[in-house]
């Protein structure tokens, strides 16, 4: 009997883990650069992508997990560096499938990878 209960608990844990939402996370990005990692959202949160403008011309980006009640809204954000405070508005758009807040690559990344690979291959070939 205990074995059956233990198996049911194990199956329940697998379903609970399977329903956790995985999202890209970027605390703050400027322009097209937003260095991301992957994160698992707590229950009741969705993936979001946030876009805003600081000082009227600097694009600010964020990604991560957000409570459903805060989704698809624009809010004012105070950002302070060295005592200087900048206020900007951030619009956070949510989605609810794994990795739906897509992580953009760095501009020119495929070309850069190809160039680094070619140079590395040439250097290795010259040593042998």
TrEMBL record:
Instruction: Name the Gene Ontology biological process terms.
Output: sperm-egg recognition
Gene3D superfamilies per record = CD59
Note whether Transmembrane helix occurs among the keywords. no
Q: Which domain of life is it from?
A: Eukaryota
Alphabetical GO CC annotations of the entry are:
plasma membrane; side of membrane
Instruction: Domain (UPAR/Ly6): give its ranges.
Output: 21-117
**Topology within the bilayer:** Lipid-anchor; GPI-anchor
Q: Which family does it belong to?
A: Belongs to the SPACA4/bouncer family.
Q: What is this protein called?
A: UPAR/Ly6 domain-containing protein
- What is the organism of origin for this protein? Amphiprion ocellaris
Q: Upper taxonomic classification of the species?
A: Eukaryota, Metazoa, Chordata, Craniata, Vertebrata
